[in-house]
Structures are given as C-alpha cells and as structure tokens.
Amino acid sequence: MTTPLLQLAGRYWWVLAVRGVIAVVLGVIVLVAPGAGLAFVLALVAAYLVVDGITALAHAAAERRAGRPWGGWAFQGVVAVVAGILTLVWPGATALVLLYIVGIWAVVGGLAAVLSALALRRHGARSGWVWVLVFGIAAVVFGVSLLVAPVAGILTLLWLVGVWALIAGVLLLTAAFAVRRAARS
C-alpha cells in the first residue's frame, strides 16, 4: 500500500532525474571547459535577473493600479533588468566583480572571526575559540588569494561548482530511481 505522497513522488520521479542529468551535464561542462561553463552559468544568471526584473516591474504596475506603494518593486525590477543586461554584455567583468565581492566578503568575515576568537579567549573561553580563529584565518587566506590571483580564483570556484554539480547530479539521479522503485513496490 502506498501513501498519496509516495504515489505523487512515483508519478513525478522523472523531475528529479531531469534535474540530475542537467546537474551532471553542467558539472562535466564546467570541469572539461571552464570558460564555456562560466559563460553558461553567467547566461543563466543574466536570464534569471532579467526575468526576475520583469516580474518585479509587472508587480509594481499591479500595485500602482491598486493604489498601493509600488516604487520599491519598480526599483528592484529596473536594477535586476539592468544587472541582467550588463551580465550579458560584459560577462567577464561580471564574473570578476562577483569574484572581488566574494574575496572582500571572505576577508571581512575572516577578520571578524579572528577578532571574535581573540575576544572569546580574552574572556576565558577554554575551548572553541581556536576553531573560530582557524576558520577566520582560513577565510582571510581564501579571500586574499581570490583578490591577488583572480583568474586562478575563478578557475578554482568553477572546479568546485563542477564537482558539486556532478555529485548533486548523481545523488538526484539515485534519488529519482529510488523513489520510482519505492512507488512501484
């Protein structure tokens, strides 16, 4: 006897399988041809930004017709559409800016973690502070390495995305066939 949820999952197991195949293909593309993988990922991000911006603008128009505040939705929509277009027009610059943002975020977060670890130690923490310190130092090293060697940083991030996509794809495919098998039995 199967439950309604298992019946539903059994009917749509193929959705997991499609997601798995897409993830595996993305992983292979990124690992075999990182430049093409980066272009593909940036095109997806650009498309998402444009579609998201258009829907936000449509929401703004609906809010305006209803006499409700709409400026925030309009601003968000315009920014998203412009960001999407800029990503399509200048994909290399977009990737570099994103890399710098991640690098700066890692350095700032790492420095905050180092200061927190030292404060914990100063206030008598006997354990735990060392791991916060190690995390902080690792984050600073990671961030500085991205900022100093951006090309190597982009390549490393792409490889991580590629490996993640392969693993996620295999897991999704495994889950899809397990759900299908469970629903049939």
TrEMBL record:
Which InterPro entries does the record match to this protein?
Acid_resist_chaperone_HdeD, DUF308_memb
Task: Give the CC-aspect GO terms.
Answer: plasma membrane
| Superkingdom in the source lineage | Bacteria
TM spans, by residue? 12-32, 38-58, 70-90, 96-118, 130-151, 157-179
Any Pfam family the entry gives: DUF308
Enumerate the UniProt keywords alphabetically.
Membrane, Transmembrane, Transmembrane helix
Descriptive protein name: Membrane protein
Organism whose genome encodes this protein: Nakamurella endophytica
Source species taxonomy? Bacteria, Bacillati, Actinomycetota, Actinomycetes, Nakamurellales
